[in-house]
Amino acid sequence: MVFCTRVLYLPRIYLFIAILYTKLPCLLTIFAEDPSVHELDMFEWSSGIRVAYCIDAPLPDILSPFRRTFSKVVTKYCHNTTACNIKKQLVFGPEHIMFVEGFPRREYGTIHIKFYVVFPHNT
């Protein structure tokens, strides 16, 4: 009887190495820099996202679709008046998505976007 355990564990080892190779840089870049004072002040009511992008793409070409899309998401979410604790339904536009000072910035092949949503004036 021949036991060939090495062959059985090779795919698992390759999978582990692949996961480690893809996830470790993300884990290491989370705490790459100390937060600024402005980031700490806005921490409770801002949100952030990291997005992979084409290196040759200019920043405005990436951010304007992000603002348009996220304003649609917020509008859809706030159509449930109890979710946003408001009395009437609101429509958010791209101008209501504001970026935290110093953001967006390019880091390690991704764009790090920190943003907050401003309510329209008629609320």
Task: Give the fraction of residues assigned to helices.
Answer: 40-55%
Seen as an oligomer or otherwise, the chain set is single chain
Q: Count of DSSP helices?
A: 4
Shape: elongated
Overall pLDDT score: 68
Determine the structural class based on helices, strands and strand pairing.
alpha+beta
- End-to-end CA span: 77 Å
Largest sheet: 4 strands, antiparallel
SSE sequence, one letter per element: HHEHHEEE
Beta strand count: 4
Radius of gyration: 21 Å
Q: Which consecutive residue ranges, at least 5 long each, have pLDDT under 50?
A: 1-10, 24-32
Percent of sequence in beta strands: 15-25%
Pfam families: DUF8077
Domain DUF8077: 39-123
Organism: Angiostrongylus cantonensis (Rat lungworm)
Keywords: Membrane, Transmembrane, Transmembrane helix
Task: Write a structural description.
By secondary structure, the chain is α+β, with helices and mostly antiparallel strands. The chain has a domain of 82 residues. The chain has four helices and four strands, in the order ααβααβββ. Strands 1, 2, 3 and 4 form a four-stranded antiparallel β-sheet that branches. The protein is elongated, with a radius of gyration of 21 Å. The N and C termini lie far apart (77 Å).
